[in-house]
Amino acid sequence: VQFHPEVTHTPHGDDILHNFLFRICKCDGSWKMSDFVHAECQRVRDIVGDDHVICGLSGGVDSSVVAALLARAIGKRLTCIFVDNGLLRKGERELVEETFRGHFDVDLRVVDASEAFLTDLAGVTDPQEKRRRIGHRFIEVFKEASLGLGKNVKFLAQGTLYPDVIESGHGYSGAAANIKLHHNVGGLPAELGFELIEPLRNLFKDEVRKLGQVLGLPEQMVWRHPFPG
Questions:
Q1: How far apart are CA 229 and CA 218, in angstroms?
Q2: How far, in Å, CA of 102 to CA of 218, rounded?
Q3: How far is CA 13 from CA 3, 17, 183, in A?
Q4: 212-228: per-residue pLDDT in tens?
Q5: What are phi and psi of 86, to 5 degrees?
Q6: Helix, strand or coil for residue 134?
């Protein structure tokens, strides 16, 4: 079809999709997000085995959902590292600590690197240069924190979504516009020596929010608006 049935202002767009799925493809509509939780937790357990995973927890929707999912899948073999870069929402650090240490009982390490980040950004006005400096500093801080865990960590978990895959040119078409300088695809530098785990890689943002609800994340975390990166 030469138009977009999926957008809200297309008349009867939902009907077109519904008819295609249920009348033509004979889908039965029985799948639920809780099915994804069960299948993905099992997949993660199969991959990780007896090893440990670290997750860079930012407090945003994607990384929070990844952390909650992995906490359910592998429990104490997950360690989350939360880097306070001095550029967070008011109360964000406290919310993350309360949610993941309290409700999910996760091994959470909080690193206050705000002074280093703000020093790097002093006097810089170009947005791409800010992103580059933040990314470079984050890798240094994260690497130092991960080396200090004293565990044999094999895997790094990231909140890569399907739009990240598309934007990186790693999607099914193999080509995409260079929309932004940085995204999750590719992970932290190879010299860190981790294998990547990306449980949300085939999901879109609205699906990730539904997944967060199923996992029991707080409403203000699941439904928050994106914060400028």
A1: 22
A2: 12
A3: 10, 6, 31
A4: 999 999 998 899 887 76
A5: 80, 5
A6: helix
CB atoms within 10 A of CB 104: 20
DSSP string covering 23-67:
IIS-------HHHHHHHHHHHHHHHHTT-EEEEE--SSHHHHHHH
Long-range contacts (CB closer than 8 Å, 24 or more residues apart) made by 165-174: 165/201
Cβ–Cβ under 8 Å, residues 133 and 121? yes
Where in the chain does DSSP place strands (E)? 52-56, 78-84, 107-112, 153-157, 195-197
What is the spatial distance between Cα 197 and Cα 160, in angstroms, rounded to a whole number? 9
Mean pLDDT for the chain? 88
- On whether the pTM is more than 0.70, the answer is yes
